[in-house]
Known about the structure:
The complex is a heterodimer of chains A (367) and B (128).
Chain A: H1 13-18, E1 22-26, E2 29-34, H2 38-47, E3 50-53, E4 58-63, H3 67-74, E5 87-93, E6 99-109, E7 112-117, H4 122-131, E8 138-141, E9 147-152, H5 156-161, E10 176-181, E11 184-189, E12 198-203, H6 208-219, E13 225-227, H7 229-238, H8 273-282, E14 286-293, E15 304-307, E16 310-321, E17 326-334, E18 343-348, E19 351-358
Parallel strand pairs in A: 3-13
Antiparallel strand pairs in A: 1-2, 3-9, 4-7, 4-8, 5-6, 6-7, 9-12, 10-11, 11-12, 14-17, 14-19, 15-16, 15-18, 16-17, 18-19
Helix pairs in contact in A: 2-7
Chain B: E1 7-8, E2 13-18, E3 21-26, H1 28-34, E4 37-41, E5 48-49, E6 54-60, E7 64-68, E8 73-78, H2 81-84, H3 88-91, E9 100-104, H4 116-124
Amino acid sequence: xxxPALLKQTPLNAVHRRMGARMVDFGGWDMPVQYSGVIxxxxxxxxxxxxxxxxxxxxxxxxxxxxxxxxxxxxPNSIADMQCGQARYSALLYPHGGFVDDILVYKVAExxxxxCVNASNQEKDYAHIxxxxxxxCEVEFAGDRYAQLAISGPLTQPTLxxxxxxxxxAIRYYRFVDGEVAGAPARIARTGYTGEDVFEIFxxxxxxxxxxxAVLDAGAEFGIKPCGLGARNxxxxxxxMALYGHEIHASIDPFEAGLGRMVRFDKGDFIGRDALLAxxxxxxxxxxxxxxxxxxxxxxxxxxxxxxxxPAGWVTSGSPSPTLNKxxxxxxxxxxxxxxxxxxxxxxxxxxxxAATVPTPFYKRAR
Amino acid sequence: MYxxxxxxxxxxxxxxxxxxxxxxxxxxxxxxxxxxxxxxDLPKPGDxxxxxxxxGSVESVKAVSDIYAPVSGEVIAVNEALAGAPETLNADPHGxxxxxxxxxxxPEEIQNLLTASQYQEYLGEPGK
Lengths: 367, 128
């Protein structure tokens, strides 16, 4: 175990410790895994509102006359048709088609883009993009210039609206506006990772403790809870969203991960295109699917899966689902076997436990 | 907080010895570290435990944790109520949420275990 003193810290580290959060090493960051308890925090987000410190997420800014050309070159999704104020889910891929990372691209201006990337990948991502840059633009590592809060739940909007003059109702899903929150400059984005209504705000690190308190005060009447990464994980899993290092990594391509929608061959060349074209013609060998435990036991990351007693795949994420009261998971199985309704087994501590493949997402909010 | 008549392991189990039988559970600290406990996997009556070897597991929402035998012996009772209410382990780990009862096969092993004050001292050390 690495001493907490050697881990990276967000600007809210002292706040988390003061508030009694349980801290863990998360990819080299000293982060709160829970405050009051994962289940209670999970329910707060599904039923009212919760706030997460996600300042560990990385930011990379790309600016200049050919910024679009660089992003188009390093990501498989279409970027040219994005409007200013729009965000889009995409990836960075290796030439062989595997994931460097999954990312969100925010179009700030015609010549300026803002990327939000996974905490543990930010240095790698920055190097990857910079190495690919043969265009007239600058790539800037901006992880130290932003703190980030995610506010999520059905009562997110009334909570955050108290703190900003920006009309939140006018910000649609996957759109953002640069405005102010509690007097601090903030990029207010309706993007997130919980399957619930959500705003992510990017703010100056020095303002983070004050805004954290302001958000908790604003949400107090709605029962807001500070939430840790434990609830963030169960929420995203119910919503069927991928987590780097689990569902996606260098040996997985977007088709296998069920993210073929982010691959736009019609847009022209990008890193990984040739490999993915070849993969598309043969079809993926394995596919990400959902699973539900039928027997007693919880599937966990890395557990082996069997079909008719033979090794067939592995669990990528697994947990009890607090919303559904079932034990759920995501897994890779041979392409022909991942469709819902198949009887499988998960090897839990040496013993096969019955499970079944099911559709994802496991949870979808009513709109 | 940690009963004086219990003995403790560095893996955060406790045992209460009464005559030739021992009641085994996990400590308050263990449940705090685990968080919301959702699943308990225990041996059956008749199974044999060997001191310091794993005999079951406790799962929280976040993770699986093995449970180690504080002393050797044969299982004579299992707390069946835990299967339906694993959250009891968060609420009352030193009492209602005992895990198993065993007949000790080597009572002298108790001497290897920590007393309540030694355990609390151990918890106070950095990195525990």
